[in-house]
Amino acid sequence: xxxxxxxxxxxxxxxxxxxxxxxxxxxxxxxxxxxxxxxxxxxxxxxxxxxxxxxxxxxxxxxxxxxxxxxxxxxxxxxxxxxxxxxxxxxxxxxxxxxxxxxxxxxxxxxxxxxxxxxxxxxxxxxxxxxxxxxxxxxxxxxxxxxxxxxxxxxxxxxxxxxxxxxxxxxxxxxxxxxxxxxxxxxxxxxxxxxxxxxxxxxxxxxxxxxxxxxxxxxxxxxxxxxxxxxxxxxxxxxxxxxxxxxxxxxxxxxxxxxxxxxxxxxxxxxxxxxxxxxxxxxxxxxxxxxxxxxxxxxxxxxxxxxxxxxxxxxxxxxxxxxxxxxxxxxxxxxxxxxxxxxxxxxxxxxxxxxxxxxxxxxxxxxxxxxxxxxxxxxxxxxxxxxxxxxxxxxxxxxxxxxxxxxxxxxxxxxxxxxxxxxxxxxxxxxxxxxxxxxxxxxxxxxxxxxxxxxxxxxxxxxxxxxxxxxxxxxxxxxxxxxxxxxxxxxxxxxxxxxxxxxxxxxxxxxxxxxxxxxxxxxxxxxxxxxxxxxxxxxxxxxxxxxxxxxxxxxxxxxxxxxxxxxxxxxxxxxxxxxxxxxxxxxxxxxxxxxxxxxxxx
Length: 602
Hints:
The protein is mainly beta. It has two helices and 51 strands. A hairpin with a 4-residue loop joins strand 1 and strand 2.
C-alpha cells in the first residue's frame, strides 16, 4: 500500500462520497459544483462507499488532453531542404561564421576551436557527409540561433577531455535545432550529446549518442522518423522548462507549450543512469519502437527497501521548478495537476530501476504494446491513472499500477508485483474502514490479470467493477487479500475471479447488483489448479488456472442469477453444488478475518 507523498494538489472531480449504504435509484445528489440525477440505467448506481449517484468523470483529464493536442497540432514535420552540395561552402576548420546559407562538413576535420554560427548567421543549413570531426575542450558545432543539420553517409563527431575539469556539449544550439537526412552519426560527448535552447526536432538520420550527461537536452523534443541509440550518465531524453533566479515567484507558471517530449514515430534505444525520458510538462507517444533501460534495470529481488531506494525512471513527466534571485541554490517545484503522460501507440519495452512510467499529474493510456520490468511501480500517477486500450505486461514490479484515482475501461493488462497489484492510494495515512475520498478504483472494461504478493486490487476508498474480465492471484499469506478496500467493493458487471489465502478475505459488497460466490477450501490448493464453474446446462460460467497456491476463491459473473444452481469443479473434480441464495453466497469453510459483503476486518 506504499505510495510516495504527493507533490501536487489533487484535482476535484465534483464527487460526493458516503461511507454508508446506498441511496434510492432516482435520488438527486448535490454538491457545491454539480447536481446530478441518478439514472437507474447507469452502471454507477448503488455504489455504497464510492460516489453515490454520480458517475466519476474524466472531465479534468479530457480538458488537459485537449490542451496537449493543441500543442502537438502546432508541430509540423520539416522535410529535408533541397540542397546542392556543389554550391555549399566547405568548412575545413573551426571559427566564427556570420553568413547565412548552405555549409558542408566532410572528410577528416580536427578542430582547435568550435565551428560557431553567430547571431548574424540566420537560415543556416549544415550538411555533414562522411565526416570525422574531433575537438578537444569545446563544443564541435555551436549556433546562436536556429540551425538545421542534415546527416548523409557515415559520420563521427567527438570531443574529449583535455584536462580533468573540462566538459562541453557536443552540438549546442541557441534556438530551434532540426536534424534530418538519411545518414548515420556517432556523437561522443563529455557533456550532453545535443543541447538546444529551443525545440529539438529529430526527423531523420540514425544518431548514436554516448554522453557524460544528457543524451539529448532541449526546451522540448519532437521525434518523427529518427533512429536514436543513446547511452548516457544522466537522462536519455531531457526536456527542461525551468525558471532561474526570478525576482517575483508569481512569474513561475505552468506552461504546457514548453518542456515536452513528443514521439510520433522512430526507433529509440536508451540506456541511462537517470531517467530514460524526462519531460517537465508532458510526454506523448503516438508510435515508434522504444526500448529503455535505466540504472541497471529492475533488481533481481524487489523489496520495499529496494523500491524506496530505487533511482532511474523509464518515462517521467512533471518537474518544472524555479529559483529566486535571493536564493539561487533552492529549487522550488511548480505545483500543477496538468503534468501528463499520454500513450496512444507504439511498442515500448522498459527495464527500470525505479518507476517504469511515472507522471506527477495524470496518465492516459489509449494504446501501445508494452513490456515492463520495474524496481518500483510499473505505472504510476499522482492523480488519475487512466487506461482505455493497449496491451501492457508488467513482468516485475513492487506495485504494478498505482494512482490516487484509477480508471480502467479497456486494454489488456498483466501485472506481477511484489506488493499490491493495482493500488488506489495518494500517500496519505488512512484509518481502517474510513475511506479516503481522494481515491477510488473503477474498472469498466478490459482484460486484467494480477499476480500479487500483496493485495491484488487495493483501494484506500472503494472499488467499483462494472465490466471487464478480471483475474486476481492474490497473496499466499493471510496478511493480505486478493481484494481489499476501505469502504466496500461494488460489483455490478463484468467477470471476476479472485484467488488467495484465507485470513484477510474481503468479498464484494452485499449491495452489489451482480451475484458472487465465495468459496473457502479446507485444504490448500496447489498452483496451476483448474477452477471451473458450470451452470445447470453444463455451460461454462468461468474457467481459470491459478498461478499459485490458494484457499479462497471469489467468483462473480453476470451469468450468476439468484436461485440458479451451479457446479464448482476443481481439477475436473466436482467439489460443490451451489444454489445462489443471495448477492453473496458463501460455501466451504470459514476463517478468522472473513467478512462477507463488506470491507475485510482485521
